[in-house]
Design goal:
The protein has 300 residues and is mainly alpha-helical. A two-stranded antiparallel sheet has the order 1-2. A two-stranded antiparallel ribbon has the order 3-4.
Length: 300
Amino acid sequence: MTGLADHALIERFLEMMRAEAGAAANTVAAYGTDLRLASGTLEGRLGEAVAADLERLAGEWQPLARSTVARKAAALRRFFAFLADEGLRKDDPSAALPRPGTARALPKVLSVEDVDAMFAVIAARQARVPADPLDLRLAALVELLYGSGLRATELVSLPRNAVAPDRPYLILKGKGGRERLVPISDRARAAVAAWRAHVDAGRAWLFPSGKGHLSRVRLYQLIRALAAEAGIPPDRVSPHVLRHAFATHLLEGGADLRALQAMLGHADIATTEIYTHVDSRRLVELVNQRHPLGEALARK
């Protein structure tokens, strides 16, 4: 067996997750919590656990939600695989862990008409005289959320000169420190340029607020207020929903799933594949509503 105490093994594993796997801080923290709790349940013998011990853990997890059990089991599987790879164990007992599966919820989706309604509100605001610079800011925010699929944190923390007028892309560092290339449309660059003209050259951020940059909470409030003005229930809309709309509408338009994965910054293609379920649901609805057989069944 390992010959090392659980706390030392867990720390070595978490260090690997940070340094080699490039895991996000929240993922490392969650894995650490799950492993320490499992170690406590097994009286400090997690590193030496056998199948019966893991079955005991699974029994302790029975009252928990399937998603929680799946996360805990995934943490332990990765931990034991690490011990085996490092030669700290000769075997891997993780086959005894449960595989409950998780029912992944489909993301909330806006139709193209919903998005058009939001941009119509922005256009009407910009047509006002005198113009309000904050309407230019809102246009730039929404163009980048929907037009490029940026995460809220990535958007609000963009440096002032991140979007160059002669460069149709950004290079962003997202979750886990992974870099990705994000295309920026001509209209998004134009919206950013119009807004940036009102941002003092000495400011560090493209969307400054106080001594820092616009907060995610404030962005959320702005997007919900825009949705309400466009006649869309505000609880259906958020910055993340606009990112989902970007992905879904691209896929419906024929975008390649791998290209979409790169643009969204997903480490695992399985994360991106959720959008194929959204698209397939739309296609099923279309067949049921428009196909002659669907109409015939509806008359029965």
